[in-house]
Amino acid sequence: MTTAAPDTAPAAPRVPPATADPAAFKVVPARHPARWAGAAAVLVLVAQFTHGLATNPVWEWRVFGDYVLSETIVQAVWVTLQLTAYATVLGFLLGTVLAFMRLSHSPVLQTVAWTYIWVFRSIPMIVQLVFWFNLSALYERLGVGIPFGPVFWSVDSDSLIGTIGAAVIGLTLHQAAYAAEIVRGGVLSVDSGQREAAAALGIPRLRQIRRIVLPQAMRAILPTAGNEIIGLLKGTSVVYVMAIGELFYQVQVVYGRNGRVIPLLLVATAWYVLLTSLLSIAQYYVERRYARGADRTPPPTPLQRARRFLRDLRAAAARREAPVTALHLGGESR
């Protein structure tokens, strides 16, 4: 006796019934209560801080206004800018040389560059500045002559270097150690095929570096270099140990004389914020310039966005006035 085999065919998938008109669905916008609560808390804190700035008498805004543009402070800002400019230019020039020494195939150049970077990154800047400030205790006179032989010309160390010179030397040598690693990282980011192609075309080594490698490496160098320069601008305050009249030192002198510590510190803060903002703007435009080869259509700058916004506002105002003018002219013609 045989039995019929059970039906093992798979069941057909269930198809949902056709929905009605999509307009019948209720659209519920996404809600983000935590985001709104966080934004409200931040706004409350900002409002409290702003209210404290405006109402707390300890800030002494009148004293701030008296000193922020005073001749003493402006001269100190100029000294700060000079120290920053000298250390930046000289530090990155020396750092570029050190970077290519580390990339050299010569073990001597590699060892010397690595040792320099290791030493100057290990010693705090303030220690280096004090050392160079007291260089005359180690070498009373500096001269030019034959190595290990007679000296043809010499001069007193203090008269040759001076206080500002010692500060520039200390800042430059310290900055060069960090600039070397920044430049080396940018050079390593350039594809090796670029150098190989340049060598195959017979382009001299120095021209390869100057016209091919460095322009491409600048895109990787600039962001970190910009941060380093801004850090150097604020790091010049360390030279107060050498009694140089830069911004922070002069602020200390003034509030040591009149006892107005908070408003004078606010003066220094305002100037550092202003100078840092200007450096950030310069960094933005320099990065934009070196990004032209990679980005054919760079995004508009904030100034271009502002101009476009004003043009859109004027165009919208003109469109609103045009129908009224046409209607007015039509009524006069009748």
UniProtKB/TrEMBL annotation:
GO terms for biological process: amino acid transport. One of its GO terms (cellular component) is ATP-binding cassette (ABC) transporter complex. Keywords: Amino-acid transport, Cell membrane, Membrane, Transmembrane, Transmembrane helix, Transport. It is a multi-pass membrane protein. Pfam families: BPD_transp_1. InterPro entries: AA_ABC_transptr_permease_3TM, ArtM/GltK/GlnP/TcyL/YhdX-like, MetI-like, MetI-like_sf. Residues 77-283 form the ABC transmembrane type-1 domain. Belongs to the binding-protein-dependent transport system permease family. This is Amino acid ABC transporter permease. It comes from Streptomyces bauhiniae.
